[in-house]
Write a structure and sequence with these properties.
The complex is a heterodimer of chains A (327) and B (331).
Chain A (H helix, E strand, L loop, with lengths): L4 H26 L14 H8 L7 E3 L5 H6 L4 H8 L33 H15 L5 E6 L6 H12 L4 E7 L2 E2 L2 E2 H4 L7 H6 L3 E5 L3 H16 L5 E6 L19 H8 L3 H11 L5 H24 L21
Parallel strand pairs in A: 1-2, 2-3, 3-7, 6-7
Antiparallel strand pairs in A: 4-5
Helix pairs in contact in A: 1-2, 1-11, 1-12, 2-9, 4-12, 5-6
Chain B lengths: L5 E3 H15 L3 E5 L15 H5 L4 E3 L4 H13 L3 E6 L9 H8 L2 H4 L9 E6 L14 H5 L5 E3 L4 H13 L4 E6 L6 E3 L13 E4 L4 E5 L3 H13 L5 E5 L2 E3 L3 H11 L2 E8 L4 H13 L8 E5 L8 H7 L3 H13 L4
Parallel strand pairs in B: 2-3, 2-4, 4-5, 5-7, 6-7, 10-11, 10-13, 13-14
Antiparallel strand pairs in B: 1-8, 6-12, 9-11
Helix pairs in contact in B: 1-7, 3-4, 8-12, 9-10
Chain lengths: 327, 331
């Protein structure tokens, strides 16, 4: 590992924060304490953490409908996130966006997105603005394997390469587009094969290995920052829970064995094992980290539950900047 | 008046863009063929030579990515003008326009500001057939978060385009293809016509005609013909379709007691339906006749000039509509 111990702890912390937030959200959803849809990022933590760990605060990311992990990895605040999931006035979006539109522009997080593939063209716009301003900022588009089948991705990837923009396309290949396996929806095995078609370098990484993801991200981000243009990273990963909700076993579209095999390669526990093995960390230190972050989550749930719901007059607020349009 | 400065509609657009780019380095343009070529209608002519290829950007034929480019750049601090060559092509970019541009601010709890102008060319009359002639503005007006502007004169074009660029919300600026060569007074200095403010093009006391885009001129022609018979039509051009200046329209309806709404778009579900509904809600007791609507028949735009000429409303159709409104005897 060429990644420093401090950075390893940083990446670990990002992953644990995602895991704890998502597990808590799942429990709340099961208890009917969260309205709406919930797409959990559990299992894929290494991707958001490894990539966002390679970014500066003023770099931009676009996300997906499975977007909590990206916001947490970019530094998202638990309190405001949990409040948003509960539809509270104190949430990131004042209760108007919810899980699928959670965002924090001050962190460069340009929104989870309910439309598959729609984030990539927006990331292209952020990358264009970054190149235009010449301050060395980059943009990252997160998307799934399924999103590479939609036209918006193709248009975005081609335009980014044609305009030589500072962008990284970060594909979370979790082998399923909603409930349909990848091999039923495309004739290639590796998404990275598509990169050459746009004229950008592409690399496959083990998406369960945060260090591998991080190293690939460092290279791609540096390329973008130094005027080398777009790159594609395909992280092979897996969602431990269902497409939406928390059920993970006994589903007809994938076998329990398959889920169990992937869970053996849990990105957090495998990193912890390696760090202990390499004498970078101790089990006790990890216990402290989990305990501290669990406490943060408990406080966030309390904050969210005690927060007020938005008042009805907020329906018409923020449709437009300045004044509202016609009724 | 003879020495007043005149410009064609297309150059009024061009001048508004050029002056905005001079005034604000965060303004840039992107679209198909707009760079060296200047746009298929010449709307962006000379701008790349003046401002460089970094600020007047030729894009791939990728309408989703063109609008996405604008959304992402606007959300991160620039003031983009993105061009969709024909209004029909908004359909290709509908996700980025409707689900992204229009909603980001709201979905993000007000945190995002999207100073994005989407420019496009609408309307028929060029035998461009069903995929290059449509008037789809009603679809856009139905989407909370968007503003929709449709100038009918060179003067309005420059002032409204300047307002669109300065606007902090996603705005769709529709140019009518058959007005591009129309010449009229345009001041050299930069000026803004506020969005959401209608223009009373021609005052009158007998009938109100609400029309926008090229139909303003057909309506004025019909009004002038009827004026010879002593009928004074008031012609109102809303100029901005969303937000719509219903106040000016309703006030006029209360004075004339008879209203005809005219648009080139298909009549069914068109903006005329909304305007008629607003008038009956707010001025029902003042009306001496049902609010009339003139629009295209419920078919795609046909190709053959023989058919298209029949399809697009003209002064004669408007005149007939006015006569119909006048035939009703007041209460």
């Amino acid at each position: 590992m060429s990644i420093s111990p401090d950075k390893q702890f940083d990446l670990h912390r990002r992953m644990v924060r995602i895991r704890l937030f998502e597990e808590a959200a799942g429990r709340l959803a099961e208890a009917n304490r969260l309205p709406g849809f919930l797409h959990l990022y559990v299992g894929e933590e290494a991707v958001a953490s490894g990539v966002c760990g390679a970014l500066n605060d003023d770099d931009h990311i676009t996300s997906t409908h499975r977007g909590h992990g990206h916001l947490v990895a970019k530094g998202g605040d638990f309190n405001r996130m949990m409040a948003e999931l509960m539809g509270k006035a104190t949430g990131y979006c004042k209760g108007k966006g919810g899980s699928m539109h959670i965002s924090d522009l001050s962190l460069g997080m340009l929104g989870a997105n309910g439309i598959v593939g729609a984030g990539s063209p927006i990331a292209v716009g952020a990358a264009f603005a970054n190149k235009y301003r010449k301050k060395g900022q980059v943009a990252v588009a997160f998307f799934g394997d399924g999103a590479t089948n939609i036209g918006a991705f193709h248009e975005a990837a081609n335009m980014a390469c044609a305009l030589h923009l500072p962008i990284v396309f970060a594909c979370e290949n979790n082998e399923y587009g909603e409930f349909t396996p990848r091999d039923k929806t495309m004739a290639i095995t590796d998404i990275v094969d598509r990169a050459a078609g746009y004229g950008m370098p592409g690399v496959i990484v083990d998406g369960m290995d945060v260090i591998a993801v991080h190293e690939a991200a460092l290279e791609a981000v540096e390329r973008a920052r130094n005027g080398g243009g777009p790159s594609l990273i395909e992280a092979k990963t897996y969602r431990f829970y269902n497409h939406h909700g928390v059920q993970n076993l006994g589903l007809k579209y994938r076998s329990d064995d398959e889920v169990a095999r992937w869970k053996e390669r849990d990105p957090i526990f495998t990193l912890e094992d390696r760090m202990v093995e390499n004498k970078v960390a101790t089990r006790e230190r990890f216990e402290e980290i989990w305990t501290e972050l669990r406490n943060d989550i408990d406080n966030a749930i309390k904050f969210a539950e005690e927060s007020p719901v938005p008042s009805p007059d907020q329906v018409l607020v923020d449709v437009y900047t300045k004044k509202a349009g016609a009724r | 008046m003879s020495d007043e400065r005149k410009l064609p509609y297309v150059m009024a657009f061009n001048e508004a863009v050029s002056q905005a780019m001079e005034a604000d380095p965060s303004v840039f343009c992107a679209g198909e063929d707009i760079g060296a070529f200047g746009g298929v209608f010449g709307t962006f002519g000379g701008l790349q030579a003046k401002f460089g290829a970094d600020r007047v950007v030729d894009t791939p034929i990728s309408e989703q990515a063109i609008v996405g480019l604008g959304v992402g750049a606007a959300a991160t601090g620039l003031r983009p003008i993105v061009d969709l060559m024909f209004m029909d092509f908004i359909c290709v970019a509908m996700d980025q326009i409707v689900n992204q541009a229009a909603k980001l601010k709201y979905m993000f709890g007000g945190e995002a500001t999207l100073p994005l102008t989407i420019t496009t060319a609408g309307g028929g009359g060029l035998s461009a057939a069903a995929q290059h002639s449509q008037s789809l503005e009603a679809i856009l007006c139905h989407i909370p978060g968007l503003k929709v502007v449709y100038p009918s004169t060179p003067y309005d074009m420059k002032g409204l385009m300047t307002a669109c660029i300065n606007e902090d919300n996603p705005t769709v600026m529709v140019k009518h293809k058959r007005l591009l060569g129309m010449t009229g007074h345009v001041p050299a200095e930069r000026y803004e016509i506020p969005l959401g403010k209608a223009n009373i093009v021609r005052p009158g006391k007998d009938v109100t005609i609400v029309a926008y885009g090229r139909m303003v001129h057909e309506s004025v022609a019909a009004a002038e013909k009827l004026a010879a018979e002593g009928v004074e039509c008031e012609v109102i051009d809303p100029r901005t379709l969303q937000p719509l200046d219903t106040e000016t329209i309703v006030e006029s309806a209360k004075r004339t007691n008879r209203v005809l709404v005219v648009h080139e778009a298909v009549r069914f579900g068109g903006l005329g339906a909304e305007i008629a509904a607003q008038i009956q809600e707010q001025a029902f007791d003042y009306l001496d006749a049902p609010v009339g609507r003139i629009g295209a028949p419920f078919s795609p735009v046909p190709f053959s000039p023989a058919l298209e000429q029949h399809y697009i409303p003209d002064a004669a159709a408007i005149e007939a509509g006015i006569r119909d409104a006048l035939m009703r005897v007041g209460a």
